């Protein structure tokens, strides 16, 4: 089925939903069962039973009691009963959220101002309409019941749908740019991001980042080689918000991630039928269609279904359809007396071009185009390299790119067993494939063909283009790049059950976390091609003057690293946490976790093909060094356990100002790739952190100071045809800041940033021969920040807005040796939105408007400096734009 047909079907489904009539209810009003008592708890129950998003300041509800509400009735009537006599009332601004605010004083007079805000997102949304003191309930970092952000004794950021829309992230990882303390590299395409956390040493991927959906991890290993978890989920209109907790309580709950835990929460159906469809066109030719529909099926049962589909070449177009795919998501919630059941599921089938380092020019801190190669839009991949036959006889297609084809189902159940006693269980099952095919640059920058041959110890006999057979000049600039193919068949089952007991000011929770996961790996790395050093590179065939045949259809080699492996992992953890409110202002908590981690597997042994390679001919140089699997296997086995623990406090200095402090010890266990390479260390992380939280209408900020100490860490890069490991420790001190200033009702300026001093300590590489103590942790800058002004205004009776973001990324080192400098750069994005009617709007988004050349990666295949002049590096994507039309009801 072509992309036009699939996009047409998505649009038709959305239009059929719209044709059913805006606001039409499919069922009777919902039934409520909310006992009288604490107002904050009552509002949380109301949100669950009415399926409406609630926004309220915790200090407004503190100390107030709600009337009980029971029986079937419209949500507005039920909410009015809850709030009767509390001095609070509900407002319903456009956008779907219910806002709880204080009643105005009797003598107050209305003050003329701009139109009321359409939605009140968390601070990360960076819009003029946000109100960070009105905190939504945060689920991540808690045993499951949720907590207001102002009451959270840890560093947490929430990002809602309007903020996601304004950011227009090309990949799931891109949305995490709004989270201070994280360094995001998405220059590799829509899949395969690198995410670095708070100075945690890592060679790439997202080793200390766990992704969840609806509060449960969907694939427990945070990272496997060629697979990080953001590759397994997409952001579209079905997502309600994204939560991110850094450090803190993350080491206790769910998978016990001490780094950062990301929770992606879907929309849910409410008491009315709602829906939206969006069509987007991109300047690079990509097309995208989004749609979702939600509403009631019965008084206590609600649904949501939706998804997206996109297709195009991408900003770095290889000359063929490299980016294609989509996702379908759905959920169903049923409320029953004393609890609820949520069922959810996703089908993802998506791939995109895997973008690798390209030739650029570097002279100190100055980066420019390599002659004839556009650093903003160029790629070595092209029609001539798209398909071919590897030395082992297998075929490849670069259009397969990097992506995933998975299904994911899950369930959340909550049941109040008795007064103050609540059982919660969260489960997830995932299965599918996550494959990679890419054109990976070598460790030698562009050089002339004659220089290339001289390095081989010979002279040119014949040099011809493979596609035409015509002669190429000895002065032709050439590079080598290899076809890397990785196939992963993955499966995961996760269950996280907790029992919560509330009595007076105390809340105690005990939990059991269990996970079983597998990966079936097949790798074929190497397979170097001799190419012209230009965009859409062409293959070259080379024969030396002595008759030696260097290439076959452009290939100078076959596999340099082969993997055939079966892995199975199991985790079992018990945890307990107790939270005590000592008074209205002070709350303390402490918790402990014991986790057992086991891995079993079989890894195929590889060896050289022997003298002359597979064909036995020493004159055919292109296969003489090939690695092959010999059919034998070696076992992989690991058993380990560790204790993690944390203690913290939260103190409300005033209604607007709060503070927290926390110490935590967390662990991360070795996963499949580490154990295959003989690395069995168990990383230990100690974190001390504290922060201030200030929130008023004109100004709000969240500031966190942290100190991390790492021991037993391992980072691995694949260079010179095989994994190279570095092992040891590090220390990091940092400050994270996010906030917003509102000079007026229609103007806001949001800001976020971090300062980080992260250095290796007793950290060894070169098989333990070199101590890198004192070097800065790779790929993470000292300074990075974002500044986002926003202006909402009226344009001829229509609501309009302008927004922009100026981002700064400081100097970094690409490698642990601190030999490859990634210079600082600025990036400017902007956008505009115009509401054509109450249901129809148009939006324009521009990315990297100044065409900045910002390097996010040097050449991981090269150990040490690349020198000055031509190098291999991976820049951010060049300027692009998207225009979209949205219709909702």
Describe the structure in your own words.
There is one protein chain. The protein is mainly beta. The protein is 7% helix and 53% strand. It has a 22-stranded antiparallel barrel. The longest helix is centred in the N-terminal third of the chain and has 17 residues, at 3-19. The two termini are 29 Å apart. Residues 1-27 and 106-137 have low confidence and may be disordered.
The count of strands amounts to 54
Give the low-pLDDT segments.
Answer: 1-27, 106-137
The helix content, as a percent range, equals: under 10%
Calculate the terminal CA-CA distance, rounded to whole Å.
29 Å
Q: What is the average per-residue confidence, as pLDDT, rounded to a whole number? A: 87
Residue fraction in strands: over 45%
Envelope shape: globular
Given the helix and strand composition, which structural class is it? Answer: mainly beta
Q: Mind describing the biggest β-sheet?
A: 22 strands, antiparallel, barrel
Radius of gyration using CA atoms only: 28 Å
Give the count of helical stretches.
7
